[in-house]
Design a protein that fits this description.
- The structure is a single chain.
- The protein starts with 5 loop residues before the first strand and ends with a helix.
- The chain folds into 2 domains: 265 residues, FAD/NAD(P)-binding domain (3-Layer(bba) Sandwich), CATH 3.50.50; 148 residues, Elongation Factor Tu (Ef-tu), domain 3 (Beta Barrel).
- A hairpin with a 4-residue loop joins β19 and β20.
- The protein contains 13 helices and 22 strands.
- α3 crosses α13.
- The protein is an alpha+beta fold.
- The chain binds flavin-adenine dinucleotide.
């Protein structure tokens, strides 16, 4: 390893760090990547259940609607805009396609490698880095970062030492990362940390309210409506799939809402989403209540999976044998609400960090220049990926943002070094 400073040192070899290294090397910089783990890739190999939901189809303005974070509504989108234009979902797809790994879109717009393996995307990235001459050091955990006379001095575990003229911090967030060194390293330079909390995380429901639904673990409603209610007010709503777990709710609609959910909130899940209003649901219940027909049969006729129909009856205190025609009016109203407006699931807790797929919070956006991903406090310091205070919805948005911010940070870091050199040459 050369003694002279590297031009760009990237800390973290997740998707953001790998793209940063790639973009910096494409600009002609000498690049070193330091990775704490035994393997590069960060969370990329696990993404999308190993299938790698790398991005989403759509124009950039559409993609931008799926990000949250920052101090006020719309700040994350404004922040990510230049990065997504610098390296868009189209650029990403073209990059992989040109290297023999086409991406294919599913009906809902999610983009996956055609081979169905996230690992193949990682192999393409590593091959490209190799070709560009990027140095990658594994089991190299960075623990200290200082800047003096225009050079960053890096130290870490096992006697790790390196120097760089620019540094990209791409150490990820708190999700599946018990020791988020990057937050501490950035805070050491005076950067503000917005307290992290789990995002894209399943929700645990109050055990008593959930008891009848425990047997539904594994049942999913492919497309339904969920309302997030606090103190009787609807705070947010989402359409999408809901999955019942052993202790609560998951699936894209729940995961997307989870960044807003607090214990004590109520999630109302429409169990028969085809019915738009409780009045319509009540009418349908009445229409189908013929002769000795059991309510469970009527519910199944309205599209509820068998297990869910049984669970719902138990939850509202009705027996399995209950005949639909003999249902008291009040009970029918309650049932109609659960079907159309949403059955209430009181939230006991959010899932923990080991279950979270993303982080809400991170390095405050206002101290980072969106046009370069450069620190506004420290020249030569850049940020990329989940370490920053933005989080995307499920559907490939988080990886796209990691790739895009990584690309912009790496390119900017290389240009920063080049500018400095030019400036130095002029002065010298
Ligand atoms: C199970 C799971 C599935 C997911 N599926 C999807 C999906 O399908 N689509 C999607 O868009 N998003 C998905 N995500 C989210 C996505 O994986 C992340 O948004 C993305 O990986 C963030 O990239 P990153 O490079 O910023 O961080 P990471 O992927 O976390 O990479 C950070 C890297 O930095 C290294 N590092 C940390 N500290 C140090 C240090 N001190 N020194 C050196 N190296 C360090 C880490 O070891 C790691 O390799 C998923 C997340 C999880 C957990």
């Amino acid at each position: 390893m050369p003694r002279a400073p590297w031009e760009v040192v990237v800390v973290g070899a997740g998707p953001a760090g790998l793209l940063a290294a790639l973009a910096a090397a494409q600009e002609g910089a000498a690049v070193l990547v330091l990775e704490r783990g035994k393997e590069p890739g960060g969370k990329l190999p696990y993404a999308g259940g190993g299938r790698g939901n790398l991005s989403h189809t759509g124009e950039v303005p559409e993609l931008l609607r799926h990000y949250h974070g920052g101090r006020r509504a719309g700040e994350a989108a404004r922040f990510l805009r230049p990065a997504l234009y610098a390296f868009s979902n189209r650029d990403l797809a073209a990059f992989f396609a040109a290297r023999g790994l086409p991406l294919v879109a599913e009906a809902d717009g999610r983009l996956f490698p055609k081979t169905g393996r996230a690992r193949d995307a990682l192999v393409v990235l590593l091959t490209e880095l190799d070709r560009l001459g990027v140095a990658l050091r594994l089991e190299a955990r960075v623990q200290e970062l200082r800047r003096a006379r225009g050079v960053f001095r890096i130290q870490g575990e096992g006697g790790l030492r390196a120097e760089g003229r620019a540094v990209v911090l791409a150490t990820g967030g708190r999700a599946r990362n018990p020791e988020p060194d990057g937050y501490r390293l950035a805070a050491g330079f005076g950067h503000r940390l917005v307290p992290p909390r789990p995002a894209l995380v399943p929700v645990r429901v109050e055990p008593a309210a959930f008891a009848p639904f425990r047997a539904c673990a594994g049942v999913s409603l492919p497309s339904t409506r969920v309302l997030l209610v606090r103190g009787g007010r609807t705070l947010a709503q989402k359409e999408g799939a809901v999955l019942f777990t052993h202790v609560g709710l998951s699936g894209p609609a729940i995961l997307d809402l989870s960044r807003e959910v607090d214990p004590g909130d109520v999630l109302r899940v429409a169990l028969a989403p085809g019915l738009r209003t409780s009045v319509e649901a009540e009418r349908r219940l009445l229409e189908r209540a013929r002769g000795k027909r059991q309510l469970a049969t009527v519910l199944r006729g309205l599209g509820l999976p068998r297990g869910l129909a049984r669970a719902l009856l138990a939850a509202v205190g009705l027996g399995l044998e209950q005949r639909a025609a003999e249902l008291p009016r009040e009970a029918r109203r309650g049932l109609a609400e659960s079907l159309a407006l949403g059955h209430p699931f009181p939230v006991a807790a959010l899932g923990d960090w080991a279950e979270a797929m993303a982080t809400r919070g991170g390095i405050a956006l206002e101290e980072v220049d969106p046009k370069t991903m450069g620190s506004r406090l420290v020249p030569g310091l850049f940020f990329a990926g989940e370490i920053l205070d933005f989080d995307g919805e499920s559907g490939g948005y988080n990886l796209q943002a990691a790739f895009s911010t990584g690309y912009l940070a790496g390119r900017s870091a290389a240009r920063f070094v080049r500018e400095q050199r030019r400036h130095g040459a002029r002065l010298g």
